Automatic annotation (TrEMBL):
Organism of derivation: Botryobasidium botryosum (strain FD-172 SS1)
Transmembrane annotation, as ranges: 61-82, 279-300
GO CC field: mitochondrial inner membrane
Membrane topology: Multi-pass membrane protein
A UniProt-annotated Pfam family: SURF1
Protein name per its UniProtKB record: SURF1-like protein
Length: 318
């Protein structure tokens, strides 16, 4: 009986061993990478962050700096075009004013229509009357050829019931501003009540500058031509004063002007129109800046796209 049991056990063992030999292996040892392959992979990944999740190279030229640099040429080109428009407007304005100045002086009516004054700004006018020295004021300080002084403003009382107007008689040096105003005569004859003839230029109402102090009439401090307040200072409507501002014209040369300043006599304005016109210079500046920044922008884009193409090439060779 034992012999039969052993025989059966041996047969079972042979069957199990035969089955295990015929079953293929599933688990195999991983083949180790060579050091050359690992080194190549490491060097290729120097500029790529590990575990990035994507091997697609990112664009490096589209940054806030390039966006701002791309906007600057457009903006500055627009400013240059705006300056060209301003240049055309200024040239037309200068031509219009010069045409007014070339006309013969006109005589003002007895009572001037204030609302029509802007239409006649910069027109030459011819006036006759006597100076109201009691209401002369000094506006300033001002400078003329590096000499500090003031502008003398005196009401001119016109005859035959015509209204009184305000005349800026011109610049007087500071050392003479304490001299009684009746001795400051534009004709140099020093006759207090003499009738004078004045050729002047009609001007619009003046505006106060941003940093100009306020006038203090009570203290005799006048920093700018506030025509309405000067009119009230001279007596207002009750005295027949109108808010009409006229600048006396001086047609002499610079030597004559210097001589008058030395004598303490006012020197009026030039008969020429002298409006500042720098719009052509500004336009050239803006257009130049637009061109320069455009070149910088395209150079930066070209460089950025070149770097991007190199990165794509590296990615495709992995």
């Amino acid at each position: 009986m034992q012999t039969a049991f052993r025989t059966q056990l041996n047969a079972s063992l042979r069957t199990v061993l035969a089955t295990s030999r015929s079953t293929p292996r599933v688990l195999r040892a991983a083949r180790p990478l060579s050091w050359r392959a690992y080194a190549s992979e490491a060097f290729d990944n120097e500029s790529t962050p590990p575990f990035s999740g994507s091997s697609k190279p990112k664009s490096s030229w589209l940054t806030p700096t390039t966006l701002v640099l791309g906007f600057i040429p457009i903006f500055t080109f627009g400013l240059g075009t705006w300056q060209i428009q301003r240049l055309r407007w200024k040239v037309a304005l200068i031509d219009e004013l010069e045409e007014k100045v070339r006309r013969e002086p006109m005589t003002l009516p007895k009572n001037i229509k204030i609302s029509a004054l802007p239409e006649f700004a910069f027109r030459k006018v011819l006036l006759r009357g006597t100076w109201d020295h009691a209401h002369t004021i000094l506006v300033g300080p001002r400078t003329r050829e590096n000499v500090l002084g003031y502008h003398v403003v005196t009401p001119l009382v016109r005859p035959d019931g015509a209204s009184t107007v305000l005349v800026d008689r011109g610049f007087v040096a500071r050392e003479f501003h304490e001299i009684p105003s009746e001795y400051i005569s534009p004709t140099g004859d020093y006759r207090e009540q003499a009738e004078v003839e004045v050729v002047g230029m009609l001007r619009n109402q003046q505006e106060k500058g941003t940093f100009t102090p306020e006038n203090v009439p009570e203290k005799g401090e006048w920093y700018w031509m506030d025509v309405e307040r000067i009119k009230e200072h001279a007596g207002g409507e009750a005295a027949g004063v109108q808010p009409v501002f006229i600048q006396e014209i001086f047609e002499g040369n610079s030597a004559e002007a210097s001589h008058r300043v030395a004598l303490g006599m006012p020197v009026g304005r030039s008969p020429e129109i002298d409006l500042r016109n720098q719009h052509a210079t500004y336009a050239v500046t803006w257009y130049s800046l637009s061109a320069a920044t455009a070149v910088m922008f395209f150079a930066l884009m070209r460089k950025g796209r070149g770097n991007s193409s190199t990165a794509k090439f590296r990615g495709s060779t992995r």
